[in-house]
């Protein structure tokens, strides 16, 4: 019995050592995998951030240019943003990026794939590397609100049956358009290219004025002379009141706005700085009484002085035009980054029934490039630049020129 007992004890002790050794091997293997997997998750998180940001960068093209010419800019922006970044300190290569642009639903998808990222401890178990992949999709969606609007309302374009002397469906110098004065005058807001009735639209961005659909169209944004042929109605000049923004800055050269909704100083400050109040489509906003000649000139002058060499070049963007400024010995396109590219509200001209009108509703927003205003008595001229970056709202979201970006995949 003793011999057998002694034998069993020694045998159990040896078995325990084997089990301990196996357990240690498994525990070390699990720890090694945990270390490598943690690194892999961190790398994937880097790739996902790059994919997200690249998709949004690509989708921004849908806010800047007409849909029919947006495919290449969207793809270029997505690739360009991705190739500026790195994973684990190693720059992204073009072979690791795939971009897909869908014009049908204004969506940009970006894939980031890096194969065979190195492993450390897991190589002991036969793993040579780990593949890292991430995908993101950004989509431009219709919006019904925007911020940082300038307080000058612009009448949306209408069809004038008799006063359009050269039949170009454009308000030219010397033509005294007056909505509703002639049989056949009509206005219809542009509701986007997918609207079944889109060909009947007359508003800015519509097909009424040819294939370029107003991109780069010169517009007289504000008159100072009540008898100017571009003035919609004598005594109405369309300065309007934005809600107060408690965090708004002040004009650098002409003082602040007093923190109220009304008055020339506030109106001027809302031109030269960003009032971040949310402005919704189809909500009434008060008009400012009077012409606001001096405050308009002061506020606009500050914006122009912030980028005095910027100019409109009609040859950019395939002949549609764009904003550029000098850099060294050449000119560089600046897109919408110039402080002279501003958001303005468009309104249905049928609202105007007389000079006593006290409020106004907007049915679209648009980007405009401010061209010039040489002196206080000069009209303010600009160029139509299409889409406004907006944001979602609980109200109407059918602003055909107002879009916001979001990640959808």
Task: Describe this structure in a few short sentences.
The protein is an alpha+beta fold and 409 residues long. The chain has helices spanning 2-59, 61-64, 71-83, 264-272, 293-305, 316-319, and strands spanning 86-87, 90-91, 97-102, 107-118, 129-143, 145-146, 149-155, 218-222, 279-280, 285-286, 311-313, 322-327, 330-333, 341-347, 359-360, 364-372, 380-386, 388-389, 399-407.
Topology:
Elements: H1 2-59, H2 61-64, H3 71-83, E1 86-87, E2 90-91, E3 97-102, E4 107-118, E5 129-143, E6 145-146, E7 149-155, E8 218-222, H4 264-272, E9 279-280, E10 285-286, H5 293-305, E11 311-313, H6 316-319, E12 322-327, E13 330-333, E14 341-347, E15 359-360, E16 364-372, E17 380-386, E18 388-389, E19 399-407
Parallel strand pairs: 7-14, 18-19
Antiparallel strand pairs: 1-2, 3-4, 4-5, 5-19, 6-9, 8-17, 10-15, 11-12, 12-13, 14-16, 16-17
Strand content: 25-35%
Q: Based on DSSP secondary structure assignment, what is the total number of beta strands?
A: 19
Helix content: 10-25%
Mean pLDDT: 82
User: Counting H and I runs of at least 4 residues, what is the number of helices?
Assistant: 6
- Write down the overall geometry: elongated
What is the H-and-E element order?
HHHEEEEEEEEHEEHEHEEEEEEEE
Give the strand order, joined by hyphens, for the main sheet.
3-4-5-19-18
Protein structure class: alpha+beta
Uncertain segments are: 1-7
- The gyration radius over C-alpha positions equals 31 Å
Please provide a written account of the structure.
This protein has helices at 2-59, 61-64, 71-83, 264-272, 293-305, 316-319, and strands at residues 86-87, 90-91, 97-102, 107-118, 129-143, 145-146, 149-155, 218-222, 279-280, 285-286, 311-313, 322-327, 330-333, 341-347, 359-360, 364-372, 380-386, 388-389, 399-407. The protein has 409 residues and is an alpha+beta fold. The chain folds into two domains: 2-140, no CATH class; 145-407, no CATH class. Strands 3-4-5-19-18 form a five-stranded mixed β-sheet. Strands 7-14-16-17-8 form a five-stranded mixed β-sheet. A hairpin with a 2-residue loop joins strand 1 (86-87) and strand 2 (90-91). Helix 1 (2-59) packs across helix 3 and helix 4 runs parallel beside helix 5 (293-305). The radius of gyration is 31 Å and the shape is elongated.
